[in-house]
Design goal:
Elements (H helix, E strand, L loop, with lengths): L5 E7 L4 E4 L5 E14 L5 E13 L1 H9 L5 E14 L5 E14 L40
Parallel strand pairs: 4-6
Antiparallel strand pairs: 1-3, 1-5, 2-3, 3-4, 5-6
Length: about 140
């Protein structure tokens, strides 16, 4: 059995780029940055940033291009794939990217939720009503478990 699974949560380093293949399939590409903090041999705290190329196909490509932008956070699940081609001067070029099966948008700056506003979200602009909490204090002995 073989496994090729990538899970990445990071911030977009550039705005997504949406293209359409000759077959009519939409393709969206963007780059995610992830940070890793570790202590080196001397015990000093170090931070390393890695950059990941992501490709999304179909309907998810459209929604990714519509709702994501540079600086947005996103969680991507997919598989790793390496492509190769002949570059300028006949030099072979390689690119490893995550072909996304799932893209989940992270929290929006300003505290908004991660889901785009839709008609099913209470009309889009209304905030959900806060639950009514009892005014008196709860006695732990009254809890049945």
């Amino acid at each position: 059995m073989y496994i090729n699974k990538a899970m990445i949560f990071g911030n977009l380093t550039r705005d997504p780029e949406l293209k359409t293949l000759p077959s009519g399939t939409n393709i969206c590409s963007f780059s995610l940055a992830t940070n890793r903090v570790y202590n080196d041999r001397d015990g000093k705290r170090q931070e390393q940033t890695d950059y990941h190329n992501v490709v999304v196909f179909g309907r998810q490509a459209e929604t990714s291009a519509q709702y994501l932008k540079k600086g947005s956070s996103a969680y991507v699940e997919g598989r790793l794939q390496t492509r190769s081609w002949e570059g300028d001067g006949g030099v072979k070029q390689y690119r490893t990217e995550v072909v996304a099966d799932r893209v989940q948008f992270g929290p929006r700056p300003g505290g908004g939720d991660s889901a785009p506003a839709t008609a099913s979200n209470n009309g889009g602009d209304e905030q959900p009503k806060a639950p009514d909490y009892p005014e008196e204090e709860i006695n732990p002995e009254d809890i049945p478990f």
